[in-house]
Design goal:
Aspartate Aminotransferase, domain 2; alpha/beta; binds 4'-deoxy-4'-aminopyridoxal-5'-phosphate; 462 residues; Chorismate Mutase Domain, subunit A; Aspartate Aminotransferase, domain 1; globular
Length: 462
C-alpha cells in the first residue's frame, strides 16, 4: 500500500517537473520573440526596471505560496539570464577581440600595424628580471610546488601590502595565481552560485561580465558617465541590490577610463557591501601606474574584500602569467583548492622571477614612461574632436568622439584596414559606442605616429 502511494506521488512529481520544463521552453520562445522585436526597433535587450518589478512581484508571490524567497529569486534570475541568452545578449564577443585578431593577422602578413588596442604594456619585462630568470631555470625551480604559491613570494607581497596600507595580513591571506585574469576567475567562480547577481560598474573590462556569466551569475550593470567624472551613483547601487546579490566588482584605477576612486567613494561602497553582506572584489591591477597617489579598498579591512593584483602591468610581465588574490582565509582556501584541482601551481621559476621583480624598483621607471606618453597623447588629442577626463592611472585614454552617430566598432575597423592603426572600440566596455580606448604605454614615437593618424581621421570625419 505504502509503495503504491509513493509511486503515485512520484508520477505526479514527474508530471509537474515536465510541466515546468514545458513552461520554460514557452518562456524562452516568448523571450526570443521580444528580442527580435527589440532588435528591429533598435531597443536595448536588458531592461532593469522591468526586471526589478518582476523581482518585487516574486517577493509577494513567494510569501503567498510559502516559498523561500531567496531560492525563488535565484530561479527567476536563472530564467532572466536564459532569456538574455536567447535574445543574443550573452557570450557576445566584444568587437575589440575581432580588431585584435585582425591586427595580428595583418602583422603576420607583413603589414605592420601600430597597436593601440590591447592592454599590453609597451615596455615589456625589465632586463634585470629576464637575466635573473635565466638563473632560476634550474631543476630546483622546475618541480611542482604548493598551490598557494611559494612562501617567500607570498611573504614578500604581503609585507609590501601591509606596510603600504598599514595592515596586518599574513601569508594565509594570499594565493599566487597564473595572472590577474585567473585571480578574477577564481574569485568569482569559487564564490558565486548560479542565479546570484553580480554588480558591475561600466565602462568595464569585458572579462568580468564573461566570467560571471560563465559561473551562472546574472549581471547588473551600473553605468557611470564622463559628465559625472566617471563617479559612481551610490543610490543606483543601493537600488539594484536585492537578496540574490552576491558580489560587487570594482576596478580602480579603472580600465578603460583611468578613474581612481577616492577614499570617500571607497568608504561608501564598502559600507554598502558590509551592510548588505556582499563580497566586494577590488581589481587593482593598475595600482602601481597612478599619477595622483593610490587609494586602495584594502585600507578598509579585508573581511568582505577580495583584492586582485598582477605583475602584468606593473612590471610589463604579461607573458609570465603572474597575479595574486588577497582575501580572508576561507576564501583563499577555496581558491587554493581550485588552483590545486586545475593548474596545480604556478611554475616556481616564474615565481622566483616575480620575487626578484618586486624588489627591482622598475615600477617607478615605467610610471614615468607612461606619464611622459600621457602628456604627449593629451597634446595630440587636444587637436581632435574628442573629450576625455585625464586618467588618474592605468595604461589608457578613453575618449568620446564628438560626432553625430559615431560608431566605435565601424571606425576602429576602418582605421585598421585603411591606416593600419588598431584601437579598442568603446562598445566593448559597455554602452559606450561613441568612445574609443587607446593604450598609451607603447614606444613614444609609435604612439605619436598612431595618434596623429587617429586625430587626422577624426578631424576629417571619416
Ligand atoms: N584586470 C584588468 C582591469 C585588466 O585590464 C587586466 C588585463 N588587461 C587584468 C586584470 C589581468 O591581467 P593579467 O591576467 O595579465 O594579469
Amino acid at each position: 500500500m505504502n509503495e503504491d502511494e509513493i509511486r503515485k506521488l512520484r508520477r505526479r512529481i514527474d508530471k509537474l517537473t515536465f510541466k515546468i520544463l514545458e513552461l520554460m521552453a514557452e518562456r524562452k520562445k516568448l523571450a526570443m520573440e521580444i528580442g527580435e522585436i527589440k532588435r528591429k526597433m533598435g531597443k536595448p535587450i536588458i531592461n532593469l526596471t522591468r526586471e526589478k518589478k518582476l523581482t518585487q512581484r516574486i517577493h509577494e508571490q513567494s510569501i503567498k505560496l510559502g516559498l523561500n524567497y531567496d531560492s525563488a529569486l535565484r530561479i527567476l534570475n536563472i530564467l532572466v539570464s536564459e532569456g538574455r541568452e536567447s535574445q543574443g545578449e550573452k557570450d557576445r564577443e566584444p568587437a575589440f577581440y575581432r580588431i585584435f585578431r585582425e591586427a595580428k593577422e595583418m602583422d603576420r602578413r607583413g603589414n605592420k600595424v601600430i597597436h593601440l588596442e590591447i592592454g599590453e604594456p609597451g615596455y615589456g619585462p625589465p632586463e634585470t628580471v629576464i637575466s635573473k630568470l635565466k638563473g632560476y631555470l634550474v631543476k630546483k625551480y622546475m618541480t611542482y610546488t604548493t598551490p598557494m604559491g611559494i612562501e617567500e613570494l607570498r611573504k614578500a607581497i604581503i609585507e609590501k601590502v601591509n606596510s603600504r596600507y598599514n595592515l596586518n595580513l599574513g601569508t594565509e591571506n594570499i594565493a599566487i595565481t597564473p595572472g590577474g585574469k585567473f585571480a578574477v576567475y577564481a574569485a568569482i567562480t569559487t564564490n558565486l552560485s548560479p542565479g546570484e547577481k553580480v554588480v558591475i560598474f561600466d565602462p568595464s573590462w569585458p572579462i568580468y561580465r564573461l566570467i560571471a556569466e560563465k559561473a551562472g551569475g546574472l549581471i547588473v550593470n551600473i553605468e557611470t558617465r564622463i559628465e559625472d567624472n566617471w563617479e559612481i551613483d551610490l543610490s543606483s547601487l543601493e537600488d539594484v541590490i536585492d537578496e540574490s546579490t552576491k558580489l560587487i566588482l570594482l576596478n580602480t584605477p579603472n580600465n578603460p577610463t583611468g578613474k581612481m576612486y577616492r577614499k570617500r567613494e571607497l568608504d561608501e561602497i564598502n559600507e554598502i557591501a558590509n551592510r548588505k553582506n556582499l563580497l566586494l572584489l577590488s581589481d587593482e591591477t593598475y595600482s602601481e601606474i597612478t599619477f595622483n597617489g593610490m587609494e586602495s579598498l584594502l585600507e578598509h579591512g579585508y573581511q568582505n574584500i577580495i583584492y586582485v593584483n598582477s605583475f602584468s602591468k606593473t612590471y610589463g610581465m604579461t607573458g609570465f602569467r603572474l597575479g595574486y588574490v588577497i582575501a580572508n582565509k576561507q576564501i583563499i582556501q577555496r581558491i587554493k583548492n581550485l588552483i590545486s584541482l586545475s593548474i596545480t601551481c604556478v611554475p616556481p621559476f616564474i615565481q622566483k622571477a616575480a620575487l626578484y621583480a618586486l624588489s627591482s624598483g622598475e615600477e617607478e621607471k615605467y610610471r614615468l614612461h607612461i606619464r611622459k606618453n600621457l602628456m604627449e597623447a593629451r597634446g595630440i588629442l587636444s587637436e581632435a574632436p574628442v573629450e576625455f577626463k585625464a586618467p588618474d592611472g592605468g595604461l589608457y585614454i578613453f575618449f568620446r568622439v564628438k560626432r553625430n552617430k559615431f560608431n566605435s566598432a565601424n571606425f576602429a575597423e576602418k582605421l585598421l584596414l585603411e591606416e593600419k592603426v588598431a584601437v579598442a572600440p568603446g562598445e566593448s566596455f559597455g554602452n559606450y559606442n561613441e568612445f574609443i580606448r587607446v593604450n598609451i604605454s607603447g614606444n613614444f614615437e609609435e604612439l605619436r605616429k598612431g595618434l596623429k593618424i587617429l586625430a587626422r581621421r577624426l578631424r576629417e570625419n571619416q
